[in-house]
Sequence to fold (570 residues):
Amino acid sequence: MKFYRLLRLMTKEKKYICLAILFGFLAAISSIGLLGAGGYLISQAALEPPLYTLTLTIIAVRFFGLLRAGSRYGERYMSHKATFRILGRLRAYVYDLLEPVTPQIFSKYRSGDLLARMVSDVDRLQFFFLKVVYPPVVMVIVFLLTGIFLIRFSLLLTVVLWLGFFFVAIAVPMILSMVQKRMKPVLREKNGALSNEVSELFYGFTDLKTNLQLSKKNEATEYESAELINAQEREHIVQLKGETIAKGISFMVALGVLFLGVMLVNAGEVNGVMLALLVLVSLTVFETATPMVELPGHIEESHEAERRVFSVSDQDLKPIVEKGEIGVASSRFPQSITFQNVSFAYPGNERSSLKGISFRVNPGEKVAIVGPSGSGKTTVLQLLLQFYYGYSGEINIGNHDIKLMNEESTRELFSVVMQENYFFQDTVKKNLLLAKPNGTEAELKRVLEAVSLQKLPLETMVNGMEISGGERQRLAIARMLLKDAPIVLLDELTTGIDSITEQEIFSVLWPHVRGKSVIYITHRLRDLHLMDKIIVIDKGRILEQGTYKELMKKQHGYFRRLKQLEQELV
Ligand SMILES: Nc1ncnc2c1ncn2[C@@H]1O[C@H](COP(=O)(O)OP(=O)(O)OP(=O)(O)O)[C@@H](O)[C@H]1O
Fold:
């Protein structure tokens, strides 16, 4: 159902929603009361009665004036409070939906695009309550009550008012929405064409310039821009026409009420001093109805945003199993890791990236996984870190199947350096503290020294230009050293680092990980004699595994051939 999830979230903010509607209603009614009482006062004053007879009306005008100011403030305050609380809930809800399927999402969408889209769509949904839900509720209540008030004078007045309501709040917005719906595809097309031109201009700037095509591209971009502006103008004119018609109808209603009022006064059914009150009341009540012209647009926009926000999580991206609750008894001791006949294909991929992989890392053992690019090495870590669940076979840490283990406490077991490591736009210090929130400055400096970054001040901004790719990689290693978890996962950790620094890092790293279980992924074959076991993997299958000596003894072994090839190259 449309807006089902949004409405469910909204019900959690009942209190503020009810208060917003109450204050909105009071604000509208007091506006009507103020103008009505004002009109009545002027009419009465024109008859020059003794001043004391006007006292009550003057008090009423003052009362409505004050009530209007107070309730307007209350309405703004409560409606925004409700809106922001709903928005907060919505953000948390969307985050909870996406968090378990994040790896699947990022393998499907470009992460930057998706995040930007998500953030803007969620933000757009904040207007759902403010512009879609609550104004019509207030409007209907106000029109109902005003209609009932007018029945006191004549049923005809009420009929005219409700007829006006039908046209202004229902018929005109519906017709307008139908016309705009027909214009939307053109707008979308022009929008897409312009974004296309702009991104080609932006990303292909150097090529366009060197091939002398820049001015041609500029012209094309300007043409698309003018086309889009024209289409937007046309849509805006239609919108303005709708608003003008709605306002025109509300004036016609006021005129109709005036006309009827005069007839009623002539017939002696209504006192003449009430005439101004009737006209002003019927005019003011439409203040709540004329904004309805924009309602279909807001509904459409919210619906589109809602569809996009939830479409990502509604796809077949759900984790295949529910996570278990088994906590890890102690994260201090090294743990064994076992893969038993594990096969896995990434969501949407027909080809399996792992095919019946079995191996064991004993507690405290150091195991290298080597193999050519694309052979499935990183995938082993992705499964171990529980970024994906849809594999067959079993993965165990200690005696527990990881599918049954509590996700967060399991991750405490790992210190990880992946091929690409994310750093927050913050200082070196803050980025390091992520791994150990209570780490002291001395500890931070010690790990920086370990990766030969002692000259890097802790307050340097990581995403600033001062840090090179190799330094970022070393920083990731420093972060890993700081976490001090019992299982260490290293994926191509010295990519982008020169051989001398690499040697320095390894001389710190191996002593540091002594006693820990280590999986070290690499396609470089140096230092592998330090490993307890080497697993050679190609096209998702294990080709051979054993100690360095065992593999080097195999006459036609894959590893031996690789090693020989590397030595020849060196
Ligand atoms: N997110 C993903 N979505 C779909 N397919 C993927 C994804 N990540 C990897 N693959 C595919 O899985 C296979 C194994 O990839 P993996 O990254 O595990 O290889 P690798 O041995 O670590 O390679 P490299 O040394 O280049 O990092 C490759 O064919 C790759 O195309």
